[in-house]
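Final report, Chapter 2: Outcomes

The project's central promise was a pipeline that accepts a single protein chain and returns its three-dimensional structure in a standardized token representation, suitable for archiving and comparison. That pipeline is now operational. To close this chapter, we reproduce one record exactly as it appears in the project archive, with the input sequence first and the structure output second.
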Amino acid sequence: MKLRLVALICLLNLTVLGVGYFWIGVYLKSRPAQDRAAAGQQPAASQPQAASAAAAAGSALAAPPVVIYQTNQFKWSQLESPDYREYIANLRAIGCPEATVRDIIITDVMRVYAARRGQFYQNGRAFKYWETDEKRKLKQTQLEEREAQLAQIDKELPAVLRELLGINYEREVNKYFVDADEDDRRLAFLSDDKRAQVLALRDQFEGRREQILWQAPDGKLTPGQLDQLKQIDREQEGALAGVMTADEQYEFDLTSSPTADRMRRELIGFNPTEAEFREIFSREQALDAAYAYEDTNDESVRAARATDEQKMREAIEAALGPDRAAQFEQAQNPDFQSLTLLAERFDLPPEISQTVLQMRQLAEESRRQLLDNPNLPADRLAAALNAIQAEAERSTRETLGDQAYAEYSRSATWIRSLGAN
């Protein structure tokens, strides 16, 4: 009985194993070739292929997964271009701030022109450490060529930057070396929005004028070019009127016009009140406008302007009154202006300018009297003139102080001329 039971169990086990083997075979036949290779089943047609596939499968299972990150990789070479217009367009296309665009382009352009400048400072001779400096000095012909080339560069560079960026080269450079906020201070009476519009218009119309002036390298404008400039003036006036009120336009002229800038230089020491400045400005501006595009090389034009200037000056002095008119006249004296600037710089009393001028007048009058005396021997004349010069030097130094006098004496040729016979 036991033997029959054991035999039955063995038979059942064999049956289960047979069925399992059958189903495994069916399953393996339904898998792709690479799975059969991984399961140890080799196709009969190609044993080497199977071995290779198995090795590859094993390698793939053993190696860690490789993660690939894809990014929008940026390289500066994608922006740079030998064409500056394209370079600027690329910078603006990626949202580069306009101030940064200007900084990049100005630096790059100036580097190019610096290289051009540099080549005209060398005479072409190779450097040899044992040679003295005169060997590398420019010849006269090279000096003349350099001056011509540098003048061309000085004219070309502002035009290039104006064309590329629409900026005034000198004003832009001054932001780095002089004053970055000059425009904001001058136009503080305008809102931020109006100020931005006005400055943009200024640059736009300046650029148009410069293009016309560039076409007249000898400075001689044709009648057609003069008409173009006048038309630009009219268009600018209309454009500004669309942004500012009449009062704001007048204030703009008072703060930013060439006439007003010239007056601020010419009236040093006069200390005009606001009302006086406006009175003088209205007359000066009218005269400047009348002769803006006249040929100043024409003798008849110069004579007509001189006549009109004299009439204008008489009208100004009449409006100012006698005392202020005398001070206005004195302010035209370059030496008075120089002394006024010196007093301001060294924090000296303002009346020092007048004091030094009076000392000069007395010294020069004494010199004239000596020179007009025909009976004075030459040796006594020379000694007297030297004494006048020494006294002028001493009194001027005492009045200004050592530091201010050292500065003033560099340009005070009148003191040195007192001793000349």
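Archive annotation: DSSP finds 20 helices and no strands in the chain.
This record, like all others produced under the grant, will remain available to the consortium after the project formally closes.
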